[in-house]
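ok trying this again, last paste got cut off
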Amino acid sequence: MLAGCAAVRHSAEVQGALGPYVERGEIAGVISVLSDADYNETWDLFGYADVEAARPMAPDTMFAVFSMSKTFLGAAMMCAIDDGVISLDDKVSKFLPEYADLRFADGRAPKREVTIRDLTCHADGLRRDIPFMNNTVSLRETARLYAAQPLVAEPGETFNYGTTRFSVAGACLEAATGMRYEDYLEERILKPLGMKDTTFNPNADQIARMVRPYTTTGGPFRPANDRCCRQLDFPKARRLEPSPGGGLFSTAADMIRFSQMLAHHGCYKGRTIITRKTFDEVFSVLQVMPGIKQPYTCGAWLYGDWFGHEGAMRTDQRANLRTGESRVFFIQTENKAGKAFFDAKIAWHKACDVYQKEEIPFTDELVRTHENDVDRTKDYQRGNSK
């Protein structure tokens, strides 16, 4: 195991923060990866990916990353902006004609049409989410279904967190680039970063490395059994369609590379994935309209210098745009996890802040925030760091 290799760096702070939760039997297993600005990584692995089989957590253990997928859509959008084929100001109807005819339930037309920015900032004015677990609906068909509902708010004026609108954005990308979304993502981001285990459709080897989800609700951990867990059930009845808002599978080894690229403003070890201009002027700038307090950009949360996203079953990735450091937390627990998980994650971020010597830490209030209850957070916007 990586955790047993003397040449690999470990963090006493992280081990002291997370180890007790596994030792007490409150959490089955967890992976922490930290990176400094020079790409030096610190790995700490605890417990089991599969308790019943006594399979330990490993760098190549596969996880469902759910909403962390949204930041990949954002990154792909930045590549398309670099290619000159799309803009956040583009009307969605430029690529999907039915979006020119959106109406409120009473037949009123909106003040303006929905834009790409609205979709990627949860501000399109539409509400209904189409379930994405075991997704079998194409991006184009999902976009048609999403457009069939009435508006409930003016585009750009209200934040309402959701997943389906990222499939609509993905359908726009397909129209703009002339490529399937998963192929464009592979060509422009995954392959250049060497992310060989990040996919919408795990192969047999990757399925064999899949984590089992557990819950800590009400006491010691036990196998989880909520709706999100179906995403990890294999084999599937048919090949899955991509869900840009929540369908990716990945590993900690892959995800730290993506996080390092974000922390370096689109660059990974000298290779440009997203141009610095596009990253700094678009991706790392709050894209929500004035009056919306949620600090969101194109597929990512932006709290001051901290850039990244969580996933429903509690994976987490954060990049610091000022220091160039990043951190990844991989666990797979029930979507509504118990107190032990939240306490462990707070302890982890605090330990990371100490280990990485952060002048501006990822505070308790931010740690407690998940996308679904972000309204309870304070406004941590300190301006847009470059």
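PB: full thing came through this time. The longest helix spans residues 339-355.
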